[in-house]
């Protein structure tokens, strides 16, 4: 009897545990359904972080623009791109952490039946603006990139599209997005962690982006540059009150990434570069006090770009940048005025004069950094600053002053240098290469998308850092 | 569940004494060795019909008491001897039967335990299986039995890290799965024993963390009776989806029926000291700094400014640097060093001579000690038997503040309820507690990162020790500021090493129950039915700390993980002799498995409020949501096996298993694993004449498979920390796949075994070939798709190779036996195909710009990175700047992590009661990229960064002063390089800044004297006067005593971060400890 009972117990247990196996595939701890807006918020934060970062693994443009120098470990200042796979990281962070979330966000929002038509249109238009912004940064860094076939997991070998073609398409998309915006209606509300859902601010940002992108086309398609800038300059960010600033929070992980690398890390990796500080010193630029700290002996000293620059002997990055909630600057009035100054100099009809916009650009920047009006006036009065008397062509004048004003916007400054060939950057003596004029493609692309990579390398003129991109004609 | 088990086992224990002995006569006698005439203690004598038995004592006497009248068959078994059986009739008077046992030098009666506990003799085995005896494991006296397998089984590649309690990598016959698990399955007494490690992905790829060890280390080495390694799928196919990587079958010790209570007490002490050939040998001529550029004066390697305000400039160490390209040591130079800034130091505000330290980093290591104590009790009655074991291990490692404690309890009992029905149960409890485990990888908590890569050679470690213990503050050598003598500055890159050990420590524990109950019903002599419920259950808790005042943000984090695996087995065994010539056996069974893992990880955010208070609530900023995981995997398996044995020389064995796995999509989740194998003992036909004793050919084919990792079918979203009150979601980096199917390994194996000259020499050769197809891979895809990777079925990896074991007995006399054995294996691994359009699969991307890959047409585990460039004659090309020209890409193949072959030579000598042995482990090939050399040469720590150049001047002199070196190579035009480059700074000819990754790839070959043992069993005759004592064994064991040969400088090529698929890479490597152990075993 006992044996029968024992066997029966075993058999019972065996039967009782044959549950439905397939149900075990559903992860009880993660979401399968989310609101599309949350992915947009994430894309906003990730892209802004990428642009503001000074991580040697990700964003080296403050070095490439020679605003800063590295103190001891000089690999990045000397243009080593592969040691830390910087192109891979930048490319991946934009495609995967920004563009994919935007793509998914748009799909979910488009399918959301609970939204009113106006709100839905606004949300989709804003997503479109941020998508264009993100792509436009990739294009000016790499040149040809996957675009028409990107963001599709079923195509693991997306072709690279021609950079100029992408750029023109981005402008088309941007125009369509601004056209479809309904400024009277709401959009994302709080989920928009850049503008709080204010559609008119997004419209200004989009128009500003058109100006920036238009100017980048100036040497390659002057007509399109002209028409784009002329059509949109009136609706852009024109005063500091409108600046596109991303307001970081004061606790991790939502702080400005600068704080992470400059403060939280406890490291002393960066000081001002002599290229930048020498130029500021030459005109006694009053923004120095905000941009940097004086050295113990007094004055502002930049480390020789590309050479060891002991932390104690050189100017540290200014105090404001050491605050966790230091805002991330995406577009400001100074940039607007410098764009118009250059547009004027190129003969575009944007109202005012090159000199006027040049002066307005300097003024807007100085006001933004808290320089007193009297100091601004003194500064502008210098013959070396005054547009009429400053040295060189418009490219040189604007090249220098826009560089001064674009501080921390490393990518924009590096792109302006590539377009204008000013300021004159130093050639680090121990560098692996001359100052790059583009990023090489990610190593992952060489391994994972080889045929398309090879085609693109040929198309751009060789996958090296010295290949000039489509907009870089001089 | 656990309660149930405990109750049942308790019940079994209570039953034992209840069994009543029947009255009757005794059966007794003497047992001797037929060849030597020696008396044999420990032989097992059983009257099979009544399950009465006894073991022979030290004088070879046995006595079975109270045998009821009747006729019986008396059976004697003893390891190494042929079975003996005789008929005996018992009446009212004692029966005396003296027995002579014949040695079984061919091992024909030795039992091999195969899948699901099926026992087979040598003749019946038709696939490769190799056995390690429990005595060998116990004798090696290491806390982790897995390490003892190294060199003892051909075809098994074992790598062990040097960190205390670290994990052991066990790969049998090569890496098969591109991204899945390649570790062998562990089975204890028929029940799978989880051997996962909980090391994080970051830890495994060298980004910092701790090696929490392999869970199989919870097995008590003293409790192991034998280990059988089933290498190929044919041997393991019955285990289905877990069998692809081979199985390590562990049989634990059992009591015996009718055996008196035996008690064994074992006590051992092991000490370990670092092997200096595996640690960095610093240059001792230059101190802190990165080059001669700190001051413009006569001492450019030091800073020169008026620190003390006396109006003259002082020499000050650049304390904020972590390299050693600084000023040449000169005892006449008085310099402000790190201790001048430590207010508690006697040298506070004082200059001290600029000299190399008396106490270098090697003095940081302590003598490791391991106390290992165990008690083992076993015994039996006529109705059952039991065993009870307890093992306590307490280890202090080579690093200060490290401690690992293991407490293991094993209990098992077996009771015959009726003649047909037997119940048994076993409970294993273990408690592992670690504290101060070694940090691994590139991390401030891995001190090897600083010792080997980023260091100031002027630092005296005794001074650092004193500085920490004076006030328990972070008085580091690496201040961020040397500008003023005042309050204590902050650390910049590295903490005081003692602060790291005593403040930034971790602790962990793992409590485990591994238990099963089973009932065996044997209604007929040829049929038995077993039902078994087994639970492998453990809970882990890990706490990690970063103290306030450390280089990195103060932090506390905790991780709780629970693992529960239930196995329900129903096995029907048949074993029938059809005729004298033919017997058949069969098995039908089912295995229902449910494995559930839950975990939660919580961490403080942004710092700690109160120093040394380690709780989540002490977080400086609001705490981010903890990370939770919950997952259950289920597999329902049904299997059958049939074997036929014709005249004991022709054997045919077939198995089939069907699995239904929860991790695969509906419709694709049921799959089959067939195997067929045959053995032909040709020596049975040839007769015993001639020099051939034994010969067998075996051939087999099998298919086994693997199902998908959990949660690789359905998509979900990841949830980053909200931005303030705004929730964030994100598309995960891996795209899942709803149409996955199982991956399959198809394997063929053939083998030849032979023994000659009465066991003097024998060999076992196996050839195998396996292909693993339809691999389930989260294949890396271009991130332009928006994903890092996507799950697909693709790819094929082929492994083929030879395993050769040679057994010899060069001397075998009555008093002296010498066994000399060789194991050798060579595995060739090739990636045959990958996903469409992909010719390389990146397994891991590692610091130093290198990656581990599976490249089409190459072995799994190619190392890629930047390479030198070469001219047509193979010369390295040097650029016009005097440095090597690197390839523009960093995906050049610069190494292969797989060894060419591995082998071992084992010697065992027995002279009466004295035994001695030594084991030599050999590994040939297998490349290693050394991050330690990559950075450490660049920071000027290693000896190759000093010395004289071709002009006879110190390399580190300035170029103007005749220093610098000319790198051997040619210019692009083919002419020899003649440019001399400065070697006085970090961006010089050594280290990472100017060299490709290929410059730091080393051959990982080694020849090691792995183990030396000397054992003495005090002869029984000497113990006669000691009451109750049956034997004393004294053993001396030395492990890792001598690396006879290696090519990797300053480190042990075997050192690794963690078990797993990533090998061929070292960074922050721990030195190897030479250990010596003394063990005393008392048997009562």
Give the secondary structure arrangement, pairings included.
The complex is a heterodimer of chains A (474) and B (1084).
Chain A: H1 2-16, H2 36-52, H3 61-64, E1 68-70, H4 86-110, H5 117-142, E2 145-146, E3 160-161, H6 163-180, H7 199-216, H8 222-232, E4 244-246, H9 257-264, E5 270-272, H10 274-282, H11 288-291, E6 328-331, H12 333-345, H13 354-368, H14 373-381, H15 394-405, H16 410-420, H17 443-448, H18 450-460
Chain B: H1 2-15, E1 25-33, E2 44-47, E3 52-55, E4 61-67, E5 70-77, E6 84-90, E7 95-96, E8 99-101, E9 111-113, E10 119-121, E11 129-133, H2 134-140, H3 145-148, E12 156-160, E13 168-172, E14 185-188, E15 191-193, H4 201-204, E16 209-210, E17 224-230, H5 233-236, E18 247-252, E19 262-274, E20 303-305, E21 314-316, E22 330-336, E23 351-354, E24 368-380, E25 384-396, E26 403-416, E27 421-435, E28 439-440, H6 447-452, H7 461-471, H8 497-503, E29 506-524, E30 527-546, E31 555-577, E32 582-603, E33 605-608, E34 619-621, E35 627-646, E36 650-661, E37 670-680, H9 683-686, E38 692-706, E39 734-735, E40 743-756, E41 761-773, E42 776-780, E43 789-793, E44 796-812, E45 816-833, E46 840-846, E47 850-855, E48 860-865, E49 892-896, E50 899-911, E51 914-925, E52 927-930, H10 931-936, E53 965-966, E54 980-981, E55 1001-1003, E56 1006-1018, E57 1031-1046, E58 1065-1066, E59 1073-1083
Parallel strand pairs in B: 1-7, 1-8, 14-18, 39-43, 52-58
Antiparallel strand pairs in B: 1-4, 2-3, 2-5, 5-6, 9-10, 11-17, 12-13, 14-15, 16-28, 17-18, 19-24, 19-59, 20-21, 22-23, 24-25, 25-26, 26-27, 27-29, 29-30, 30-31, 31-32, 32-35, 33-34, 35-36, 36-37, 37-38, 38-40, 40-41, 41-44, 42-43, 44-45, 45-50, 46-47, 47-48, 48-49, 50-51, 51-56, 52-55, 53-54, 56-57, ...
């Amino acid at each position: 009897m006992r044996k029968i009972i024992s066997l029966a117990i075993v058999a019972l247990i065996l039967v009782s545990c044959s549950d439905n196996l397939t149900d075990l595939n559903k992860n009880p701890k993660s979401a399968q359904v989310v609101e599309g807006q949350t992915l947009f918020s994430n894309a906003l934060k990730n892209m802004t972080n990428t642009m503001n970062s000074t991580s040697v693994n990700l964003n080296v443009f403050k070095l490439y623009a020679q605003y800063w120098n590295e103190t001891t470990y000089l690999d990045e200042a000397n243009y080593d791109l592969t040691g830390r796979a910087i192109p891979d990281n930048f490319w991946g962070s934009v495609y995967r952490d920004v563009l994919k979330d935007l793509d998914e966000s748009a799909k979910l929002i488009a399918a959301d039946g609970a939204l009113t038509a106006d709100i839905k249109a606004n949300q989709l238009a804003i997503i479109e603006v941020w998508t264009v912004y993100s792509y436009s940064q990739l294009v000016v860094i790499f040149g040809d990139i996957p675009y028409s076939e990107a963001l599709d997991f079923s195509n693991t070998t997306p072709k690279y599209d021609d950079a100029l073609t992408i750029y023109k398409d981005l402008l088309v998309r941007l125009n369509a997005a601004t056209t479809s915006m309904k400024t009277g209606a709401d959009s994302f509300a709080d989920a928009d962690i850049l503008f709080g859902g204010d559609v008119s601010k997004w419209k200004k940002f989009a128009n500003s982006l058109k100006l920036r992108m238009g100017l980048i086309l100036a040497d390659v398609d002057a007509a399109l540059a002209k028409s784009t800038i002329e059509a949109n300059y009136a609706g852009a960010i024109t005063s500091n009150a409108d600046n596109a600033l991303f307001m970081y929070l004061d606790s991790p992980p939502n702080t400005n990434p600068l704080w992470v690398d400059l403060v939280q890390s406890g490291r002393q990796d960066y000081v001002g570069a002599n290229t930048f500080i020498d130029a500021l010193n030459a005109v006694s630029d009053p923004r120095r006090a905000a941009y940097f700290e004086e050295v113990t002996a007094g004055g502002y000293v930049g480390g020789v770009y590309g050479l060891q620059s002991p932390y104690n002997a050189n100017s540290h990055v200014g105090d404001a940048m050491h605050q966790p909630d230091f805002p991330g600057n995406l577009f400001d009035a100074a940039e607007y005025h410098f764009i118009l100054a250059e547009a004027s100099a190129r003969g575009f009809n944007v109202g005012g004069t090159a000199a006027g916009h040049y002066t307005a650009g300097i003024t807007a920047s100085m006001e933004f950094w808290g320089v007193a009006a009297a100091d601004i006036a003194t500064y502008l009065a210098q013959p070396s600053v005054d547009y009429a008397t400053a040295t060189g062509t418009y490219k040189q004048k604007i090249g220098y002053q826009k560089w001064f004003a674009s501080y921390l916007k490393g990518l924009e400054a590096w792109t302006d240098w590539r377009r204008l060939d000013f300021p004159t950057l130093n050639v680090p003596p121990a560098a692996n290469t001359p100052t790059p004029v583009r990023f090489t493609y990610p190593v992952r692309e060489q391994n994972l998308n080889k045929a398309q990579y090879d085609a693109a390398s040929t198309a751009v003129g060789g996958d090296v850092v010295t290949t000039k991109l489509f907009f870089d004609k001089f | 569940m656990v309660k149930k088990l405990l109750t049942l086992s308790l019940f079994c224990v209570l039953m034992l004494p209840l069994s009543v002995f029947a009255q009757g006569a005794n059966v007794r006698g003497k047992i001797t060795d037929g060849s030597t005439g020696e008396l044999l203690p420990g032989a097992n004598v059983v009257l099979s019909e009544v399950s009465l038995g006894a073991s022979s004592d030290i004088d070879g006497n046995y006595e079975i008491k109270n045998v009821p009248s009747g006729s019986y068959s008396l059976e004697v078994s003893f390891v190494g001897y042929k079975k003996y059986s005789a008929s005996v009739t018992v009446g009212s008077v004692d029966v005396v039967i003296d027995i002579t046992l014949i040695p079984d030098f061919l091992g024909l009666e030795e039992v091999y335990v195969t899948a699901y506990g099926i026992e087979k003799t040598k003749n019946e085995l038709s696939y490769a299986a190799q056995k390690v005896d429990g005595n060998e494991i116990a004798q090696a006296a290491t806390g982790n039995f897995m390490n003892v397998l190294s060199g003892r089984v051909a075809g098994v590649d074992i790598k062990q890290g040097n960190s205390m309690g670290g994990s052991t990598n066990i790969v049998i016959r090569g890496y098969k799965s591109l991204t899945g698990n390649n570790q062998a399955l562990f089975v204890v007494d028929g029940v799978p024993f989880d051997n996962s490690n909980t090391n994080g992905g970051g830890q495994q790829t060298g980004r910092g963390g701790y090696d929490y060890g392999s869970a199989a280390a919870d097995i008590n080495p003293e409790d192991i009776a034998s280990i059988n390694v089933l290498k190929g799928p044919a041997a393991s196919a019955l285990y289905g989806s877990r069998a692809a990587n081979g199985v390590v079958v562990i049989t634990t010790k059992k009591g015996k029926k009718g055996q008196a209570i035996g008690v064994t007490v074992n006590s051992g002490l092991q000490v370990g000291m670092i092997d200096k050939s595996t640690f960095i040998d610093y240059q001792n001529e230059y101190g802190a700094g990165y080059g001669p550029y700190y001051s413009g004066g006569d001492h450019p390697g030091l800073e020169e400014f008026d620190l003390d305000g006396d109006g003259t400039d002082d020499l000050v160490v650049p304390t904020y640097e972590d390299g050693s390209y600084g000023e040449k040591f000169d005892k006449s130079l008085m310099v402000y060093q790190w201790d001048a800034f430590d207010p508690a130091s006697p040298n506070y505000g004082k200059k001290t001579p600029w000299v190399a330290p008396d106490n270098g980093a090697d003095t940081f290591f302590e003598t490791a000690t391991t106390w290992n104590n165990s008690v083992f009790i076993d015994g039996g009655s006529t109705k059952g038997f039991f065993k009870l074991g307890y093992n306590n291990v307490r280890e202090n490692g080579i690093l200060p503040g490290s401690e690992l404690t293991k407490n293991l309890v094993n209990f098992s009992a077996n009771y015959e309820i009726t003649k047909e029905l037997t119940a048994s149960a076993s409970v294993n409890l273990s408690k592992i507690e670690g504290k101060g485990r070694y940090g691994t990888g590139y991390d401030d908590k891995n001190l090897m990162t600083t010792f080997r890569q980023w260091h100031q050679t002027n630092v005296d470690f005794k001074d650092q020790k004193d500085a920490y213990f004076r006030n328990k503050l972070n008085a580091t050598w690496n201040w961020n500021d040397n500008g003023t003598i005042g309050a204590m500055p902050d650390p910049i890159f590295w903490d005081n090493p003692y602060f790291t050990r005593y403040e930034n420590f971790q602790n962990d524990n793992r409590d485990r129950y591994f238990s099963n109950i089973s009932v065996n019903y044997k209604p007929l002599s040829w049929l038995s039915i077993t039902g078994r419920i087994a639970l492998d259950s453990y809970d882990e808790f890990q706490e990690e700390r970063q103290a306030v005042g450390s280089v990195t943000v103060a932090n506390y984090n905790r991780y709780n993980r629970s693992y529960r695996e239930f196995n329900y087995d129903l096995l029907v065994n048949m074993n029938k002799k059809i005729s004298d010539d033919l017997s058949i056996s069969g098995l039908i069974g089912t295995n229902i498995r449910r494995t559930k893992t839950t975990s939660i990880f919580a961490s403080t955010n942004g710092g700690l409020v109160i120093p040394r208070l380690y709780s989540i609530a002490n977080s400086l900023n609001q705490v981010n949501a903890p990370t939770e995981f919950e997952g259950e995997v289920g597999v329902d398996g049904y299997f059958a096996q049939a074997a036929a044995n014709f005249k004991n020389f022709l054997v045919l064995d077939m198995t089939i298993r069907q699995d239904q796995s929860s991790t695969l999509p509906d419709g694709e989740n049921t799959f089959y694993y067939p195997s067929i194998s045959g053995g032909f003992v040709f020596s049975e036909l040839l007769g015993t004449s001639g020099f051939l004793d034994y010969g067998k050919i075996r051939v087999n084919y099998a298919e086994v498979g693997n199902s998908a990792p959990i949660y690789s079918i359905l998509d979900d979203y990841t949830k980053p920390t909200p931005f303030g009150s705004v929730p964030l979601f994100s598309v995960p980096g891996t795209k899942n796949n709803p149409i996955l199917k199982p991956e399959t390994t198809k394997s063929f194996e053939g083998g030849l075994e032979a023994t000659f000259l009465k066991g003097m020499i024998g060999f076992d050769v196996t050839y195998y070939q396996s292909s693993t197809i339809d691999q389930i891979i989260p294949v890396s895809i271009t991130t332009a798709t928006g994903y890092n990777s996507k799950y697909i079925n693709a790819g094929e990896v082929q492994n083929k190779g030879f395993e050769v074991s040679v057994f010899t007995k060069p001397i075998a006399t009555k008093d002296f036996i010498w066994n000399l054995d060789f194991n050798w294996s060579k595995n060739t691994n090739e990636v045959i195909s990958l996903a469409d359009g992909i010719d390389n699969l990146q397994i891991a991307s590692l610091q130093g710009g290198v990656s581990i890959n599976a490249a089409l047409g190459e072995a799994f585990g190619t190392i890629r990175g930047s390479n030198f460039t070469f001219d047509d004659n193979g010369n390295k090309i040097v650029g016009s700047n005097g440095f090597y020209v690197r390839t523009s890409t960093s995906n050049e193949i610069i190494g292969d992590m797989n060894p060419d072959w591995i082998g071992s030579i084992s010697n065992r000598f027995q002279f009466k009661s004295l035994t001695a042995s030594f084991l030599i482990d050999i590994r040939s090939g297998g490349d290693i990229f050394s991050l330690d050399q990559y950075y450490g040469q660049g920071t000027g720590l290693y000896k190759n960064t000093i010395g004289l150049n071709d002009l006879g001047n110190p390399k580190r002199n300035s170029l103007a002063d005749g220093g610098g070196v000319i790198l051997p190579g040619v210019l692009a035009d083919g002419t020899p390089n003649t440019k001399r480059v400065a070697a006085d700074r970090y961006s010089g000819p050594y280290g990472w800044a100017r060299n490709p990754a290929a410059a730091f790839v080393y051959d990982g070959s080694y020849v090691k004297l792995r183990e030396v043992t000397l054992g003495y069993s005090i002869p029984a005759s000497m113990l006669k006067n000691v009451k109750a004592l049956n034997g004393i064994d004294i053993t001396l064991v030395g492990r890792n005593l001598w690396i006879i040969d290696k090519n990797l400088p300053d480190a042990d090529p075997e050192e690794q971060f963690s078990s797993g698929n990533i090998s061929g890479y070292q960074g922050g490597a721990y030195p190897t400890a030479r250990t010596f152990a003394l063990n005393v075993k008392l048997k009562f």
